[in-house]
From TrEMBL:
InterPro entries: DctQ, TRAP_DctQ. It is a multi-pass membrane protein. Part of the tripartite ATP-independent periplasmic (TRAP) transport system. This is TRAP transporter small permease protein. Keywords: Cell inner membrane, Cell membrane, Membrane, Transmembrane, Transmembrane helix, Transport. Residues 19-148 form the Tripartite ATP-independent periplasmic transporters DctQ component domain. Belongs to the TRAP transporter small permease family. Pfam families: DctQ. It comes from Hydrogenophaga laconesensis.
C-alpha cells in the first residue's frame, strides 16, 4: 500500500510542479519577450483539476483534510468513532457519484480541444477521472477500516502531536 500512496502523492505533486513551471515560464516569456506559452491558461486549469482529484484521494484516506473538531474533541471514543464513520460515509456518498460524473464527462467531450494547440480535453479529463475514482475507492477503504476499528494514518503524523488521533 505504501507504494500506491507514494505513487498517488507523486502524481499530484508532479502536476502541481508542472503548473508552477508553466506559469513561471509564461510570466518570464511574457515580460522578457512579449509572448506566451500556447494554451498556458487552459492547460494549467486542466492540470489543477487533475492535481486536486489525486490530492483528494490521499487526504480522504488519511482523514487529514481541513476540519474543525469543535464537537469531535468533546466526544468520547465511541462518539468520535461514530462521527468519523458518519463523515467518511458522507464523503463516500459524495465521491462515488462525483467519480461517475467525471467519467461521464470524459465520454461526452468528443473531439473538444484546447484553444491554441487543440490538445484533446479527453486526455486531461481521463487522468482527472482516474484520480476521482482512486479518491472514491480510498474513501471506501477508509470507511471499511474505520468500521473494523482501524484508522489509516500518514507516517508523517507524529504520535504525540495534538491532532494525531484524528488527523486534523
Amino acid at each position: 500500500m505504501k507504494r500506491l500512496f507514494s505513487a498517488i502523492e507523486t502524481v499530484a505533486a508532479l502536476f502541481l510542479l508542472l503548473i508552477a513551471l508553466i506559469t513561471a515560464g509564461n510570466v518570464l516569456l511574457r515580460y522578457a519577450f512579449s509572448m506566451q506559452i500556447p494554451d498556458w491558461f487552459d492547460g494549467t486549469q486542466m492540470l489543477q483539476g487533475i492535481a486536486m482529484f489525486w490530492g483528494i484521494a490521499l487526504a480522504t484516506y488519511y482523514g487529514t483534510h481541513i476540519g474543525v473538531d469543535i464537537v469531535w474533541e468533546h466526544l468520547g471514543l465511541k462518539g468520535r468513532r461514530r462521527m468519523d464513520l458518519l463523515a467518511t460515509a458522507l464523503t463516500v456518498a459524495f465521491l462515488v457519484p462525483l467519480a461517475w460524473m467525471v467519467w461521464v464527462k470524459v465520454g461526452g467531450t468528443g473531439s473538444q480541444g484546447t484553444m491554441d494547440l487543440r490538445l484533446p480535453l479527453q486526455w486531461f479529463y481521463s487522468v482527472a477521472a482516474v484520480g476521482a475514482t482512486v479518491a472514491a475507492v480510498l474513501a471506501l477503504v477508509r470507511l471499511v477500516q474505520l468500521w473494523q476499528g482501524h484508522e489509516a494514518r500518514p507516517e508523517s503524523i507524529d504520535e504525540g502531536s495534538p491532532g494525531a488521533a484524528h488527523g486534523s
